[in-house]
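BUG-536 | component: ligand-complex export | severity: low

The export step for zinc ion jobs runs without errors, but we want the raw record kept on the ticket for reference. Input record follows.
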Amino acid sequence: MRVKSLTFVMQLLLAVPSFAAESTHRFTADMMTAAERSDYERTSTFADVVAVIDALAADSPLLQRETLLLSREGREVPLVILADPPIMSPAEARASGKPVIYIQGNIHGGEVEGKEASLILMRDILYGDKRRLLENQILLFVPIYNADGNDAMAENNRPNQELSPLRTGVRTAHGLDLNRDGMIVEALETQALYGRVLQRWDPDLLVDLHTTNGTWHGYSLTYAPAYHTAGDEATSAYMSEVMLPALQAAVKRKFDLEFGWYGGFDYRNWPPTALRTYHHAPRYLTNHMGLRNRMAILSETFSHDRFYKRVHAANAFIEEILEYTRVHGAEIRRINREADTRVAASAIGQEKGVQFEMVARDERLDLRSYRYIPYANDDGSTGFARSAEIVTIEDVLNYNAFAPTKTATVPSSYLFSGALTGLKDKLEAHGIWVQTLEADASFNVEVFVVEDLVRTGARLNGHQNSALQGYFQAETRSFSRGDFIVSLDDRLAFLIFYLLEPESDDGLVFWNLFDAYLTGELATQQTAEYPVFKAL
Ligand SMILES: [Zn+2]
């Protein structure tokens, strides 16, 4: 007993210097966000964000900075690295063995609270009471991913956000929706994210912070994992079945906040029987991460909440995510690395989906929603009034999963002509290794014979997207020295597959990369060959 209390006193004495050292850090007005300083009337401009990061950096060696990109309008978009001890480079991060967690706000320039919440959390980690969030992990923050979109501020850019704040930026970056660019990689922002973050820092988890477009559900925030489509199942399953349920319980317990699965429902069939999510496609960055054997969370605050409440919800969520990864980061890293090994060793020959449909999860949910009250219009039709009451509707089907409707075989490699340098560049933007044949060689391949190129009706980022109709045919083909080959005994095999399969619903065909060639061929003959060949 005596020994014990002496030890306790010793611990207290030892603890004093570090506590004192931390408390001497200045916590100054210039560390406040524009939202905090304006009583949540205003959201930060790019200059405001940089000023806060400057203030945070001034007195902390734990903060390092890189430039993510120089935006089209000349803004140097910051990537902030927090680590204890400090980390100066991706090589040091790798050597540390710690998981890297990447959090980005403001991909849609009008969805502003992730930006504010990221700045607030960085400050509270460095100068407040959340230093523990630097235990066991390296944190990367991009508070203002779409800097040009953010600064295109005007009133009423986001009418569903209840004019709170009054002025926000716009959704796109120079017309490109950055959360539809994950496969074709046309925006500077996506090129920078892939080149400077994913390929260098290789984060184990990506968190993408948004605001919903308007569904009157009864949650402060809704979330989705990287959906399991053509990727390895383990990473998505961990998010859906383990991590997200744990986070939902934690924010309820600690902050008394109600979070739930992302989705919309049809209130005209009141009460709703099904919640339906958005889309499986990897053009969405969170889904894209699944094809890279990494985890991701889509976060959507409730657009009808006042701005300060949305910042609070986003802040609570990223804090809880980092509490979770602080404890379970090694497990997340192990699951990701095991997926890498498994994909590289066994992707070849698997039947994987190339087109998908939304399906219900096994487990139903209790859906919180504002109550809609049906009433009869004079013309006999039914109208719906949205009451102020939030109700819980039990046993609702949760369409937050996907199943393949069409599959294809993962080849051992894809081969294509050395003339297709544009295709090679697209693959390399994803960090895919494209090799050059050093000698002429023949391969047993499957050729996709194109009978028709149809427009899908989807219009995304200025593309009218395409789909191919046709069939595979086995042949032996000669390739020349200088032609390109992409091997699928690679950890990115499922990403390569989704990009290059001719019938993929979000591959490079869909994004019109082969339109000019194929329509030219089909103008003069019955069929054409898809110019990427599958060696089996
Ligand atoms: Zn969004």
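Assignee comment: Attached the raw record above. Residues 1-24 have pLDDT under 50 and may be disordered.
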